[in-house]
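Section 5: illustrative case.
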């Protein structure tokens, strides 16, 4: 199940400041997560639960894409390793390492 904040991002089609523009609260009920919009401080009309539920598959796709990006960032060579590869004229091996990560975590 997609996260509420991702559904809101898709609904608004932009980045959202979740500290001031839209505030989400989760009042756990019997240990079950129950997130909802506590405050809506943007010009666009607040979406209904049905409108947000209709964005479930798009939000799932966004979360999958974000996970791929996170996985790739964690395994890509560091900036320091990249600088050393450039200075040591070892770009071919650097590209091999990067390609291996891309193949491990395809988009």
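Designed sequence:
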């Amino acid at each position: 199940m997609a996260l509420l904040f991702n559904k809101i991002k898709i609904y608004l089609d932009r980045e959202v400041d979740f500290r001031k523009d839209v505030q989400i609260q989760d009042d756990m009920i019997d240990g079950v997560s129950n997130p909802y919009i506590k405050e809506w401080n943007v010009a666009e009309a607040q979406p209904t639960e049905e409108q947000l539920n209709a964005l479930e598959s798009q939000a799932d796709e966004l979360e999958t894409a974000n996970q791929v990006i996170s996985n790739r960032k964690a395994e890509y060579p560091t900036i320091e390793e990249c600088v050393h590869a450039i200075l040591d004229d070892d770009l071919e091996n650097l590209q091999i390492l990067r390609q291996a990560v891309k193949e491990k975590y395809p988009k």
